[in-house]
Design a protein that fits this description.
Elements lengths: L1 E6 L5 H12 L2 E4 H14 L10 H4 L4 E6 L2 E6 L2 E2 L7 H11 L2 H15 L4 E5 L2 H5 L5 E6 L2 H12 L6 H17 L12 E4 L5 H13 L1
Parallel strand pairs: 1-6, 1-7, 2-6, 7-8
Antiparallel strand pairs: 3-4, 4-5
Length: about 210
């Protein structure tokens, strides 16, 4: 079984995917973490996003993910880089690397290979449209940018960061995701659409779970 959760930035895709994985006892894959791990590798090797990446270089990148006891971990060539991929340098660089066709193809192959080993749930922005267009269940989460900005501001818990700047970043990310040439963010025609703006985490979870079980 393959479950795809796509959606806009800061709509709780990862949170829901992890909750569903635990509830159904299936594997969880974070597609964004793959791109971040690859970005970390390339930055460490001083390879900028404008360079063409050949298969010899990509063959040196080995990534694995683990989700156990509510804890997600990602390994790059055997090293646990779970916290490192969330660093500032990776965060501001990942979108430039992730839009490269050779990197997207590389990640797609990793995700598709993992789906052959067990049932999985994956969150991202093009899972139900590009990576797994034949997924058994597809969901698309969205919410008003202002609401998403307030939620992220609460998570950051830093009053020096203004909600207005977060909202601006979210709108810019939405525009970049939906207008990019390669695998743009869009709803799969057969996806279940959920406006998470005025729902609690548990309410969204129950709505997703109901669609899968019934």
């Amino acid at each position: 079984m393959i479950i795809a959760i796509d959606g806009e930035a800061s709509t709780g895709k990862s949170t829901q995917a992890k909750k569903i994985a635990k509830e159904l006892n299936i594997d969880y894959k974070d597609s964004g973490a793959y791109y971040r791990a690859i970005t970390l590798f390339l930055i460490r090797n001083q390879i900028n996003s404008r360079e063409k990446l050949d298969n010899d270089l990509l063959s040196k990148i080995h990534i694995s993910q683990k989700f156990k006891n509510d804890t997600f971990s990602i390994f790059l060539n055997g090293e646990d880089v779970t916290s490192k991929i969330r660093g500032h340098k990776v965060s501001i660089s990942v979108s430039e690397y992730a839009k490269k066709p050779e990197i997207r193809k590389f990640v797609y192959n990793l995700l598709r290979k993992s789906s052959k080993l067990s049932s999985i749930i994956i969150d991202g922005r093009d899972i139900g449209t590009v990576v797994f267009p034949d997924a058994d269940y597809k969901f698309f989460l969205y919410a008003n940018p202002e609401i998403r900005a307030k939620r992220r501001h609460k998570e950051i818990n830093d009053e020096s960061v203004k909600i207005e700047s977060i909202e601006r970043e979210i709108r810019e990310r939405d525009n970049k995701d939906s207008t990019r040439d390669i695998a743009p963010l869009k709803k799969a025609e057969d996806a279940h659409v959920i406006d998470v703006g005025y729902l609690t985490i548990d309410q969204v979870f129950e709505e997703i779970l109901e669609k899968i079980i019934y």
